[in-house]
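Deliverable D4.2, example record:
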Amino acid sequence: MHSRSFSLLTLLSLLLLVPAASAQDESEKADEKKWDVTEAHGPAKTVRFTTDEGTWMSLDVSPDGQTIAFDLLGDLYLLPIEGGQATRLLDGPAFEVQPRFSPDGTKIAFTSDRDGADNLWVVDRDGTNPQQVTKEDFRLVNGPAWTPDGQYLLGRKHFTSTRSLGAGEVWMYHVSGGSGLQLTERKNDQQDQGNEITVGPEGRYVYFSEDMSGGAFFQYNKDPNGQIYVVRRLDRETGEIDNLITGMGGSFRPQVSPDGQHIAFVRRVRNKSVLYVYDTETGAQRPVWDDLSRDQQEAWAIFGVYPGFDWTPDGDHVVLWAQGGLWKVNVNTRETTEIPFEAEVEQLLVEPVRFRQEVSPETFEVKMIRQAATSPDGKTLVFQALGHLWKKTLPDGTPQRITSDGHFAYEPSFSPDGRSLVYTTWSDADLGAVYRIGLDGSNKRKLTERPGYYFTPRFSPDGEKVVYRRGTGNMLLGYVHGVEPGLYWMNASGGAAHKIQKDGEDPRFDASGERVFFLTGGGLEKEYKSVRLDGGDERTHFKLKYPTSVVPSPDGQWVAWTELHNAYVAPFPRTGGAVDLHKDTKAVPVTRVSKDAGDYLHWSADGTQLHWLIGPEYFTRDVKNAFAFVEGAPEELPKPDSVGTRIGLMAETDVPEGSLAFTGATLITMNGDEVIENGTLVVAGNRITAVGPAGEVPVPSDAEVIDVAGKTIMPGLIDAHAHVDHFYSGPQPQQHWGYFANLAYGV
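Output generated by the structure prediction step:
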């Protein structure tokens, strides 16, 4: 079978080979040692100490009222209700929290990552026979709550979408295992639901807290004295959900009393977190104790807004954690009694991985290499870095700059003959455009006639046309000239823009040059489609989960895509309909070509090689090394490379000129506890050159002197990060603002 011939017969042959490819994948997986969270991954030491206090300890009271189970530093302990010496129930490197006694008191449910991810487990009361109940490896589960019959566990199942934070749902699992049953549905992927689950003694009602602050997104700096969280009640017979406990200051961490007549919960009252009791018959709410530790209403609360607590069996007391200790609170008299405890702690500490960093060297290697393109002859790599386009002769050439004007340059793409590039630009003054330039930097000319926001220009196979996307702008770049967004094509020499359609991104021509592929859809699931140049005859080729980019080979025989940061390749089947395509697809052969990650995917001109980047390294994978059925494939396919070709772009460190002298300040030094009340600090270039008392530190004659009397200067605490590219991929403003946080705390 010739690798470039791809008929229906070829496709059917490939389908027959899927089991063999899958078996190979399974074999490779078997060869890889599973990550064990309980092992010491590197040099380690054991630390032992005794403590009588702890932080953020969830607890539960046994049904007979004699024992408290609590978590401390990721281990589980048992303690007599009156206090004393705690007995460690579960220990080790695994993080194990949120213990809950079974209704008969013989078992304890808890959350553990001992299998590599947060899941619900059950262990006998004496610490033996641990059994895993849930087996999630992506949608993690925590916060167990028993049904009264002891047959099921309820838990909060965590969902994420396009942001790292997420929301939960209430799910129910039989203690023997299974995939679980969904009880509630999250309203979006950012406002939390399903926290702090508790089940009434009759088993019918399930109580939980939910962020009901409005909108569809997590908000920073919410007002906790308004209403963020609400205690909600699910009727397991009717499926109806009610907002049960509401009010200013929010309502969260519900815990039903043994007789079901009261619900203890927590609320913020001005600056205090307060324990409240709700009467299920009258709806009355009354404060009981206002010395709780601060709740987490303003933050993400995946493990609850406040640590778990419980009632005593007589319904007169609530036992909870606060102020580092354990407390017993009489809900009738409001009398509080501290429960003293002493716990022996044993923790395995693995040495952190550290790399020596040279601070501000004269030159540095640029590691943020993006938007690569390989020339049709395979000899030259072009990429974007430091706001400009660069080229490198492969494999060992020194990178040379191509663009040299005052514009930022992005997203280069080669012409079919390899002599020129199209790319986009950005200037805060001129906005964006599409340009064409020779590979040697000559013959630069602007192709687009209108200023705007331009993305991903690419040549047609014959080099006569260019396709690109025009955007609307954003809050960083502005919105002026953001009208008429969509996919466009133009002649490769510039001129009039012809709109293809409004929607879609990442356009590129197919092998015929008569159609344009594009990616569409929001969220984590997208579709890959194509249309004619007039926007007609739309076809959906793939439905994908979690794709970042989709790149067909130039000859249309293969498709590569990124999924959860890794690069995958599959044949490009034509079925006349949409094909589900993801890393676990069984309908066609799929192989992962990247070992650690892969971005900026692009093909060789003949479609036999896929290229990508990871930071400052360039990777290539031959299709024949990815699939055993391709002509020329070796008997044993090589594993994906872990080391690529170093791009080797070096740049000079930007060092300010001149000197500064700060005088009259209180200086907190790094010399033990030394504090200099009237000090002078001298900075030359980017180095502190002198620190000491005024009069003892010489000030350079050319230094700018700044009087900071009454101020304090301390060693710098740096928070340098940006959310710009995360939320707004593409061009960045030349004068950054807003989302950049470069904070050096000092004067």
